Amino acid sequence: MCTVSFVKSGEQFIITSNRDERTLRPAAQQPQQYCINEKKIFFPKDPKAGGSWFAVDECANIAVLLNGAAQKHIEQPPYLRSRGLVLIDVISNANPFELWEIIPLEKIEPFTLILFQAGKLFQLRWNGETKESIEMPVEENHIWSSVTLYPQQIREQREQWFNTFMASTKNVTGTDMQYFHLNCNKENTENGLVMNRNDTVKTFSVTQTVVEMNRVKLFHHDLHTGQETVNSFLII
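Now predict its structure.
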């Protein structure tokens, strides 16, 4: 939930996420289909809180979570609910963006939600006091790194890596973006896309959704077990 990229390549929309977590946190369950609010939702479930950092619904709406908003915050527990449960609340609604605008977030830890809905891309932030909603251009490529783990200088450096990769890769595919998220500056265990900080915080997995025409493919790679799963379905 700490590195997210968005790429539009031809008719494909590709959203890829690396989940960085404390190693004491239990591993997530492999992505499955759940029925919530009469909607089919596909996501890897966090067994600790029951939420997720990455979910896609039957209409190809996608929500991806990053910890923190625009600036690194000081933790002030106890919090009312997990941010991963807020993500599920949003994506399971008939209109995710409309729910975002009205959902109460008091006593929820700050976060950023990347929402792709009906061909539009939104950066949604809660800083602990106020919401911010920005529509992002879908014709441009984007990358986000969590402010809780990566200071501004490192976030800018990671953006440069991303831009260099995109400039050197023609007709980008989902497989290309998986490669980037798994291998970019692999030797840099502190700030590379697959990171490991003294076995206390590390990258757990890479999750990706590719939307093309009327089809969705959800890919998940567990870095601990090496297990890969792919879910494909037609858009309703």
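The radius of gyration is 16 Å.
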